[in-house]
């Protein structure tokens, strides 16, 4: 699945920042799932690769999408979960989730598309729930898309 996103979907997105950011997040997600079953000697390189994908997605989203955009909020949600679970850095996950939530909330009133508003609201609620879990530390259940 990772290769389909990498070799087919991403190149066909051309210059659409929203699509590319979404696909970069998907690549990070797939690699994150690989980490769960990978041998110990592969985990670090996979974590680095997933981190690169999430950071690419984050940068594209921050530069081209409003803070409340569901794709941007979803990227931050999943990246914070990656940091919490795969990298065991609960404090970093909390910081990422909190910043994404606060930025989305600050711009939320500008969102007039009802479908996007519902999606953004659901993702922001997941960020809020995860912030509570992140504050408790590793081992807590988290939400993602």
UniProtKB/TrEMBL annotation:
Domain 14-3-3: residue ranges: 3-132
Coiled-coil boundaries: 87-114
High-level lineage: Eukaryota, Metazoa, Spiralia, Gnathifera, Rotifera
Record keywords, A-Z: Coiled coil
UniProt source species: Adineta ricciae
Record protein name field: 14-3-3 domain-containing protein
Keyword RNA-binding found: no
InterPro entries in the record: 14-3-3, 14-3-3_dom_sf, 14-3-3_domain
Regions that span the bilayer: none
Protein family per UniProt: Belongs to the 14-3-3 family.
């Amino acid at each position: 699945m990772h290769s389909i996103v990498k070799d087919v979907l991403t190149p066909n997105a051309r210059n659409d920042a929203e699509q590319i950011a979404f696909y970069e997040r998907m690549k990070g997600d797939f690699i994150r799932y690989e980490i769960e079953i990978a041998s110990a000697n592969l985990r670090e390189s996979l974590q680095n690769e997933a981190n690169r994908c999430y950071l690419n997605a984050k940068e594209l989203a921050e530069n081209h999408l409003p803070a409340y955009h569901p794709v941007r909020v979803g990227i931050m949600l999943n990246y914070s979960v990656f940091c919490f679970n795969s990298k065991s850095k609960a404090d970093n996950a909390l910081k990422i989730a909190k910043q994404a939530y606060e930025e989305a909330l600050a711009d939320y009133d500008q969102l007039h598309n009802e479908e996007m508003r519902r999606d953004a609201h659901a993702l922001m609620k997941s960020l809020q729930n995860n912030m509570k879990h992140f504050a408790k530390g590793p081992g807590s259940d988290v939400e993602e898309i």
